[in-house]
Amino acid sequence: MNKRIIIAGAGFAGMWAAISAARLIHLNNADNQVDIFLVSPEPKLTIRPRLYEAVLEKMDPSILDVLKAANVKYIRGRVIDIDTQNKTITVQKPDEETRVNFDSFVLAAGSQVFHPELKGLKEYSFDVNSLEKARELDAHLQSLAAEPDSQARNTVVVAGGGLTGLETVTEMPERLNTLFGAESQPQVIIVDNAPKIGQAMGEDACEIINQALASSGIAVRTGVRVSSIEANGVTLSNGEFIPSKTVIWTAGMRASPLTRFIPGEHDSLGRVIGDSFLRAPEAHGIFVTGDTVKVPTDNDGNYNVMSCQHAMSLGRVAGHNAAAELLELPLHPYSQPKYVTCLDLGKWGAVYTEGWDHQVMYQGEEAKKIKQEINTLWIYPPEPDREKMFSVANPDYIIVP
Asked: Looking at beta carbons, which pairs linking 388-393 to residues 24 or more positions away fall under 8 Å?
């Protein structure tokens, strides 16, 4: 009976884990010895880094042809349980639950937006964590255009000044002007508990970010947090009430709840603390990758962040090692010392930095061109050609500008 690798998740890490595992198996003439299965609700790669954009077309390309070309079998369903001792998973399919055995398992189920206990958050806020949620936000904004002019209708509040919050908020002025007309004087506000928006990006990038915010007419509320949300507005921790029918929550992410089935140490985001080969140290045959793992990227004390940049490389390494372990080949240690950030700042442009100290390399239109290339080319599924896919699926392959 063939050995079996199961990969949970069709995101950046899951897709590349499947291709990388298939590559190593093929190179070792083991296609008739090991089967690879990818489990996800849909055989699609959601381009989550772009869900802040106004146009949501082509944000979930199918990967069925990619999987077929790589000789990976697809299981439509959702993993709802992982038994690490007996090496089985439970899959909730559209019409039944089924248990599936594995020899090696790769958890690549990603992350989701964090919703703390906050009055009105679930009832009255939006997010851009999934394509479904991004479409809900777009439908909501479209519906507001038919409502009478008012301050609450014309005001959007984005809670959270991280990368997702910044890309979402800087996209909003142009969206609102298109929907409501500039004469309505739409107002966009970003709220963050930090002393200054963009502070985590370093002093130079922070200054550029705040220039872009000011240039786009975006109001800033710093040193405060959202304390409650209602249908017609939001109250901040300093007591200020902002009339708004659109509150977008981007304040934090957490690893997939499936990580709770993996024994061992977890970080504050729910990620499994993996070893250098992306194994779960306390669960034999279990690999963790993408947003479900925390692991050093280099020897300087830096760790991966929840981003497609790290997920794609982590996926390649995890898939390779899942196959290598079954084939009794040497495992490949994860290493990704180069770190870049390209932050979209709406109509103003973008800012591109390199290194963990965020050295600004490009800004404005130059950085925007890089961002557009990343968003429309680099992060999409590869061409479903086995030779071409395998040529970029080795665990050392890293795409950077």
From this structure: 389/19, 389/23, 389/66, 389/69, 389/70, 390/19, 390/22, 390/23, 390/26, 390/27, 390/70, 393/16, 393/19, 393/20, 393/22, 393/23, 393/316, 393/319
